[in-house]
Amino acid sequence: MDHLQSRATPTCFSKRLSESVSRSAFHVGCQHDGEVAADEVKELQAARLHGPGIVFLGLHETDPEAAEALPSSDFSAKGNAAEVAAKVKGTPYFSLDVSGVEEKQVDEVLQKSEAGKNGATFAFVDGRQAMSSMDYVVGAIYAEARAMVDWNARNKYCSACGSPVFSLWAGWKLACTTLLPWADNSGRSPCPTAVGLHNQSHPRTDPVVIMAVVNEVNDRILLGRNRKWPGKFYSALAGFIEPGESFEDAVKRELWEEAGLKVWGIQYHSTQPWPFPANLMIGFYAIADPSVPTRVDLDNELEDARWYTREEILAVLAVPGATTIRSRDLGEADKITAENLAGPQSASSTVAGSVPDEPPFKLPPLTAIAGVLVHDWAHDKVVITGTKGSPALKGSL
User: Fold this and answer.
1) Is 169 exposed, middle or buried (0-12, 13-18, 19+ CB in 10 A)?
2) CA 257 to CA 303: how far, in whole Å?
3) What is the per-residue pLDDT across 128-172, written as a single tens digit (0 to 9) for each?
4) 206-340+357-379: CATH homologous superfamily?
5) Which of 148, 147, 183, 177 is nearest to 160 (CA)?
6) 38 HSE (CA, 13 A, CB side)
7) Residue 23, C-beta contacts closer than 8 angstroms, at least 6 positions apart
8) For the chain, how far is it from start to end, CA to CA, in angstroms?
9) Measured between alpha carbons, how far is 100 from 349 in angstroms, rounded to an integer?
10) Which terminus of the chain is less hemmed in, N or C, by CB atoms within 10 Å?
11) How far apart are the C-alpha atoms of 263 and 266, rounded to whole Å?
12) Which cofactor does it need (predicted)?
């Protein structure tokens, strides 16, 4: 989707939506209820000062050959808002954080929607569970929405002076309230954010490397289990990238710190946004020696790690539900962090009392990059090569 220029959104961009829910609770961009902010006040460009958070997620243009919503003068904030809006072709998407809104109000709005009038029923469900039913477009919109709602909800105070912050640029920036035209700053030093180019807080994305480790002949894969996961889930190992670290160095460090493994032949696969809360998962394959003991006593997260054959993985993938997080698992699944995605237990041992059709362990779904890494390896969709001891290629500084 195109974000256009969120700064070009009219100051009270959500006025019409807000009125459909609550005139007083959703008033935006102004100091007091009933006021309208002046268009030329840049501190209030697409600002939201009252009511539940709304974020403009972007414009979905379905025809890739006719995408026209470029951040150009055609969509400039200097133009007439009505004329700019008339040029927009596509479906604009917004997120609305209703966590602080009374359930009755939310239900009323949903029932008045087009889907509600047609008899649809609505329910809030766990995001990880719902992802299995989303297509690529819906999944991407959900990932963006959840990450942006979470970022706006978590960051309430200015990191420079401690004053409350407010949302502007349609939810994509946060600024100190001491910068508002009506702020009373008498008796206090100016906020450091009032000077310079970096006077706003921007959404953050935390990069995480996630690794499927295989042996040199490429017929076995190492999977681990976080102690917070349900007992039968195993997955690829993962960890956050540290400052000043390359992706490849992060792969080596994480596997050494978590499992005591030296790896080589590091090979990039793909990435996936993981909005729990705001991570970018960067998928890799790496090669290790299965004859070297895998350590599970090096940190407080990794409870077990085992090597599986391709046949064992394929046998589990063939069982219906082997990559599904069920409702009864969600209490534990909610504890899954971005550092490690879902995972299960030994392929060579079964759990006492398990039902005949249940796999000996479970794997992450294809909606998670860990599941894609495992699936692609199991079905011979990737070629992993590397020579032990060969240095990773890096650019010169």
Assistant:
1) buried
2) 14
3) 778 778 888 888 899 999 999 999 999 999 988 999 999 988 899
4) Nucleoside Triphosphate Pyrophosphohydrolase (3.90.79.10)
5) 177
6) 7
7) none
8) 35
9) 46
10) C
11) 7
12) Zn(2+); Mg(2+)
